[in-house]
Protein: GMP synthase [glutamine-hydrolyzing]
Amino acid sequence: TWTMAAYREKMVEKIREQVGSGRVICALSGGVDSSVAAVLIHEAIGEQLTCIFVDHGLMRLNEADEVVSMFREQYNIPLVHVDAADRFIGALEGESDPEVKRKTIGRLFIETFEEEAEKLGGAQFLAQGTLYPDVIESVSFTGGPSVTIKSHHNVGGLPERMNMKLVEPLRELFKDEVRALGRELGLPEKFVGRHPFPGPGLAIRCPGGVTREKLDILRKADAIYLDEIRKAGLYDTIWQAFAVLLPVQTVGVMGDGRTYEFVCALRAVTSVDGMTADFYPYDMAFLGKTATRIINEVRGINRVVYDVTSKPPGTIEWE
Ligand code: XMP
Structure:
């Protein structure tokens, strides 16, 4: 739309003004937000931008590779891919408190990022895809006086010692506006239309302790679930959908045998901006078919449940 074209021009000017001839490093997460921010900043200042993709090993199936190839091959944006899975998963092992998990991921992200930035010879500016709802929710939430609901690891996590200024060109935008801006910038529809994915990744969709084994199980279930959603033509109607691997094992029966495996919860919501959300009212046939596929195809899961909680009182993510 003309509005987004104007916004694009305004932000390109603003970024140039703020950055001058300085160097900018962008924390690329693989999601729509940081990608749109990176492409916009690249348009404004070109090679003064380098992206650092801290791969925490908590991405969905094939996601990390897709992001890296899109940026390097399609957009020619300089990108450093850091494989930090051992570091993150190692630090998370045995930890089940949601806020500690979030803070651990946030801290490791900063540390890893800082090391890589140093290797690049530093920069004066740090670019982030922070959105308006991130800004609000990190400070407070409707109803309570400055209660932190969740520590978002992509906001305000910049330690002063890094001595970098923030470039956050999406700070005024809601999610749907970021998508419109992404389209305006020529990002592929399939990428722009992707559901949001949280910075702490699959760690907050594995309540309790996180292990490589659990992450692998969750990845498979999540991919099947999303595949069924796409096949049913529901992907664009749903604002966000994902699987959660519960730290609960239940008894089941398969063939002649007893099973004792994990429970997988499915989540799907409609929303405008993520601030409030309604659970998606699937028909039972869809849920039954998806559950059957997950249980048949994913070793480690023998029961599937559907989350019918809206936000509020629930939040979209489970942690
Ligand atoms: P909640 O769970 O708070 O989530 O209802 C609202 C939206 O924010 C996403 N989310 C995050 N995004 N870093 C992010 O970039 C985070 O730490 C984070 N936590 C939640 C969530 O997926 C939903 O879209």
In short: The chain has two domains: 2-192, 211-306.
